[in-house]
Amino acid sequence: MDVLLSADQREELRQLAESANEKLVKAGASSAEQAFGLGCSLGILPLLVVVIVLFILGIFNLIMALIAITFGGLALAGISALLSFRARSRAIGSLYQKEVGPEIDAYLSVRGLPRPQFDSLAGETISAEAPLRSFLSLPSVDSSE
Asked: Which of 31, 33, 78, 90 lies at a C-alpha separation of 20 to 30 Å from 142?
């Protein structure tokens, strides 16, 4: 059931979609940055301690110690990146469930607009990589046609 929207209503829905998406982007970015920074900060100290102890004990020479720090740092960065991706996803999902989703539903309810129409308009408005897109009910595009 599509409701015929005026130009003003369409613009309000576009602004609502962009605003909701921006909230999700900010929450995801903030959470990802914190997780990456924390992962690197907490992981580098044990790595350095182990390498320095092995160097002092004579198990590692200088070149082996530098190689261990380099590969350990790369592994640490990879693990931190994975953790930051997961933190971003969780933060976006949590914010949508607690704040953004209810705001959208309340806005549509007050104005008597159906959710599928908002989803369709938001799908046209926001980019394909937008976090809000994962919460929209959009028709799937079949690439075999």
From this structure: 90
CA gyration radius, the chain: 23
CA atoms within 13 A of residue 27's CA, in its CB half-sphere? 22
Separation between Cα atoms, residue 31 and residue 92, nearest integer Å:
9
As given in the structure block, the two tokens for residue 139 are: 């028709």
CB 51 within 8 A of CB 60: yes
pLDDT tens across 56-93, in order?
Answer: 999 999 999 999 999 999 999 999 999 999 999 999 99
3-state secondary structure string across the chain: CCCCCCHHHHHHHHHHHHHHHHHHHHHHHHHHHHHHHHHHHHHHHHHHHHHHHHHHCCCCCHHHHHHHHHHHHHHHHHHHHHHHHHHHHHHHHHHHHHHHHHHHHHHHHHHCCCHHHHHHHHHHHCCCCCHHHHHCCCCCCCCCC
In whole angstroms, what is the distance from residue 15 CA to residue 23 CA? 12
